Amino acid sequence: MLQELDQIPPGLLDLKATQLQAALGGPTLIHLEGRRRAPLLVSVLMHGNETTGWEAVRTLLRPYASGEEELPRSLSLFIGNVSAAAVGLRRLDGQPDYNRVWPGCEDRGTPEHLLMRYVMETMRAREVFASIDVHNNTGINPHYACVNIIDNRFLHLATMFGRTVVYFIRPCGVQSLAMAKICPAVTLECGKPGQLNGVEHARDYLNACLHLAEHPEHPLSPRDIDLFHTVATVKVRADTTFGFGGESVDIRFEDDLEYLNFRELASGTRIGWIKPGNDIGLEVINEQGSDVTHRYFSVEDEALKLRVPVMPSMLTRDLRVVRQDCLCYLMERYNDHLL
After folding, report:
1. In the list 23, 51, 185, 242, which could disulfide-bond 17, CB 3.0-4.6 Å?
2. What is the crossing angle of helices 196-210 and 52-65, to 10°?
């Protein structure tokens, strides 16, 4: 059930993400009026353990909620998976991923699919100005923004956060991909949860978006952006055990794996070791949904290596996140595709 409000409940901004389930009872959409009518949509806690978005919103909205200042633009705040946030998890067992159930995903039929469709149609009716979905990484990554359409309006919105921008069209069912059908939309990746610089960066960015009068449409200079394209998703197969360091598992990844994020790796780079007699144990799916595992990885003398040069993102040592989502994404440089 979605709760829809037209004001911030008293005391809500004093609560941590772990306390929102008790206060709200479930996903909540809050509409706040500002000087410019078309609202900015901000979604937080699509993943319950990614708390930077909520922390940024708490600090951003305090002066407006108290009446000290007037919002420069209307704001709709969607607070997502509060039940998972209550226990500090990405999602609960048995729950779908809240950032895989937005309109456009191949899977349908859950209450969460209906909830996200309602949020999207509500924002369409309100003539939403832009959509910002705030996330964290579990591995070591820089702060960056993601877009799902190569469009100057989207790219300008993304580079307001920083010059590093990632373009992707898979996985499906993500918030920004759905919202891109009706307004400029970006996803923010704000580093690991609990880092003050991530909260401050997100807060300042959201504040700038609230003050934005229109979306620039002129092309960006390649000097002002580092644009990357996600070409494939890497998963560990369900029948494969994995770990790090000295563990006895089917795939033993390098201890420092997450330090390879956003580094251009040469062909032949070793990322781990395969148990003798086993196959690769990975599943690599490209944008078209095809299995391209053997295009990107090989096993040589039990060493798991890259076949071609790539740049990974979102590599993590969090075993639960790898199982629930993926090991990483593979990217290529994309600046020559600027409009």
Report:
1. 51
2. 50
Lowest mean pLDDT among 64-73, 84-93, 111-120, 171-180: 64-73
Task: Let me know if residue 225 belongs to a domain.
Answer: no
For 218-231, the pLDDT digits (tens) are: 999 999 999 999 99
Distance separating alpha carbons of residues 131 and 32, to the nearest angstrom: 15
DSSP letters for 92-132 = -TTPPPTTS-STT-S---SHHHHHHHHHHHHHHHTT--EEE
| Within a domain: 86 | yes
What are the CA-CA distances from residue 320 to residues 60, 236, 325 (Å)?
A: 31, 12, 8
CA–chain centroid gap for 254, Å, is: 25
Indicate the SS3 state at residue 270: strand
The number of distinct structural domains making up the chain is 2
Residues 294 and 168 in one domain: no
Domain residue limits at 261: 230-337
Domain boundary among 178, 200, 220: 220
List the structure tokens of 136: 């964290």
Q: Token match 């002002």: residue?
A: 224
Q: Are residues 105 and 247 in the same domain?
A: no
